[in-house]
Design goal:
about 45% strand, mainly beta, OB fold (Dihydrolipoamide Acetyltransferase, E2P), 3 helices, five-stranded mixed beta sheet
């Protein structure tokens, strides 16, 4: 079995998301900040009349916040009829990886980025970290922003 992914960069690392969870990739637009949401929620944007919560993926993964500019795309994802935007640093390519190549790294810690991964796979000279969108978006506080 093969996995079709959109790959993108965050904090100098290569990530991938299942192409079937991606609704669109849009240009940067300023976000409206909201009070009392998790720090990784950058705010909300207007997506054709709908309020779209936007997550700073770097912060969600435990890294410093993205200093967003017009060069930062927003990947609009959809899972279980819930749309979310992800601020990333760049979008790279559509790739196909084999399920056999996908491996789960063992870190021995509960609070690491690996909790959000389906696995890691080689992609040419690099490694791509494949995100599990359901785990990434699981947070009761995030529902407040929707």
């Amino acid at each position: 079995m093969r996995h079709e992914l959109i790959t993108f960069g965050v904090s100098g690392q290569l990530f991938g998301l299942d192409i079937m969870t991606i609704r669109e990739i849009r240009a940067w637009s300023p976000v409206t900040r909201l009070p009392r949401v998790p720090e990784y929620v950058a705010g909300v944007v207007n997506l054709r009349g709908a309020v779209l919560p936007v997550v700073d993926l770097a912060v969600r993964l435990g890294w410093p916040p993205t200093d967003a500019t017009p060069r930062n795309p927003i990947i609009v994802t959809e899972l279980d009829d819930q749309s979310r935007g992800l601020i990333v640093h760049d979008v790279n390519d559509i790739v196909s990886i084999s399920a056999e190549d996908l491996q789960q790294p063992e870190t021995g810690r509960e609070d690491t980025i690996t909790n959000f991964l389906t696995g890691v796979a080689p992609l040419g000279e690099e490694m791509v970290m494949v995100l599990d969108l359901a785990k990434l978006m699981r947070d009761d506080e995030l529902e407040l922003a929707a």
